[in-house]
C-alpha cells in the first residue's frame, strides 16, 4: 500500500502544476491481449498547455489520460472472467505539423501510468498486487476540422514491475477512436 500512496500523492502534486484542468476529449479503446483476454476502455483526455519544438515539422505535446476498462478473460476454471480497472497515465505525443490531404495529421504517442484492478485474479491467472503499471506506445491519424477525431493503434503492457510475486504480465493490442472538444 505504501507504493500506492506514493503514486497517488505524485499524481495529486503533478495536477497542481496544471493552470486549467478541463476535459478535452473522450476515447474508446478495444482489442485483444495475451492469455485469451480482451479489453474495452473508455478514457478521458486532459491536454497540457505545453508545446515543445513548436517550430519543427514534428512537435511534442502531452496529456493526462484517465480511464475505466473492463478486462475479460476466458482462460481457466477458477477466479473471475471479468475485471474492472481504473487507470491514469501521462502521455507524450509527437504530432506532425504537416496536414496530408489537407485534413489528416499523423501522431505517435507513449506513456507509463498506474492501473488499479478491482480483483487480483482473472481465470486461473493470479496477480500479487491490484496495482499494475502500464506502458503504452502507439500512433494514429487525427482528422476533421482542428483534428476533431482520431483513429489509432495502441500497444499496452501491464505488470506490477516486479514489486511482488507472482508477476504475470499482459500485452494488449488496442484500436482507439477519440473525439476532441
What is the CATH level 1 assignment?
Answer: Mainly Beta
Helix fraction by DSSP (H/I, runs of at least 4): under 10%
Alpha-beta classification? mainly beta
Straight-line distance between termini:
37 Å
Q: Can you tell me the number of structural domains? A: 1
CATH topology: Porin
Order of strands across the widest beta sheet? 1-2-3-4-5-8-9-10
Mean pLDDT: 84
List unreliable stretches of 5+ residues: none
Element string (H = helix, E = strand): HEEEEEEEEEE
Task: Give me the oligomer status.
Answer: single chain
Discrete helix count: 1
> Which CATH architecture would you pick?
Beta Barrel
Strand content: over 45%
Give me the Rg, rounded.
Answer: 17 Å
Total strands: the figure is 10
Outline the biggest β-sheet.
8 strands, antiparallel, barrel
Shape: elongated
Can you give a write-up of this model?
This protein has one helix at residues 2-16; strands at 25-33, 37-47, 58-73, 82-96, 105-117, 121-122, 125-126, 131-143, 149-159, 170-180. By secondary structure, the chain is mainly beta. It has a single domain, classed as Porin (Beta Barrel), CATH 2.40.160.20. The protein has an 8-stranded antiparallel barrel with strand order 1-2-3-4-5-8-9-10. The chain starts with a helix and ends with a strand.
In short:
The protein is mainly beta and 181 residues long.
List the helices and strands and how they pair.
Blueprint: H1 2-16, E1 25-33, E2 37-47, E3 58-73, E4 82-96, E5 105-117, E6 121-122, E7 125-126, E8 131-143, E9 149-159, E10 170-180
Antiparallel strand pairs: 1-2, 1-10, 2-3, 3-4, 4-5, 5-8, 6-7, 8-9, 9-10
